[in-house]
Amino acid sequence: DAGVIQSPRHEVTEMGQEVTLRCKPISGHNSLFWYRQTMMRGLELLIYFNNNVPIDDSGMPEDRFSAKMPNASFSTLKIQPSEPRDSAVYFCASSSVYEQYFGPGTRLTVT
Amino acid sequence: AQSVTQLGSHVSVSEGALVLLRCNYSSSVPPYLFWYVQYPNQGLQLLLKYTSAATLVKGINGFEAEFKKSETSFHLTKPSAHMSDAAEYFCAVSESSGDKLTFGTGTRLAVRP
Description:
- Helices cover 0% and strands 57% of the residues of chain A.
- By secondary structure, chain A is mostly beta strands.
- Chain B is an all-beta fold.
- In chain B, the strands form three sheets. In chain B, strands 2, 5, 6, 10, 11 and 12 form a six-stranded mixed sheet that branches.
- In chain B, strand 5 (32-38) and strand 6 form a beta hairpin.
- At the A-B interface, strand 5, strand 9 and strand 10 of A face strand 5, strand 6 and strand 11 of B.
């Protein structure tokens, strides 16, 4: 199994631009999670889906952030417009029963 | 609401010494508990998990953890540290299978030669 796949691995963009992060979960997993990691705030859960349905989006910072899961094998996290304070590493994880399996992350830099 | 407290944001040990990373949890129901490790510029990797079976859980790379309900603890140990163990370690709690994890703030382990 290839594990959780995230793209791009690195993204550098200018303030005000739209950013889309992509995630392919492990086949057969029915839960998908988006996290953000920064030095100041640590690891934060942004949103999670179960069977493609958003269950808890209370961690999404503001309306500039949106996430979709159109099918069981793909999810996106979009930031529009991006701001420098969005600079972080964004992780996607998937799970089937107990533990979550993490992708390698997308390092986002907004200048 | 569930929460996790990791005592000590930085721990330093000598190579060959005992590793002890502390984790205390709070949960309104019997918890599921996890330890993850993160190496520089990588994602989190599961070390071990407790899911209400044996209270002493063995994981990868020689790590183990013991669930102590009376102390609400799930400390991570390894008898002999290796240089390759230098990383950041996260304790996490969940209240049901497939549910979200609540992570601690992490403990960075340094191993001295």
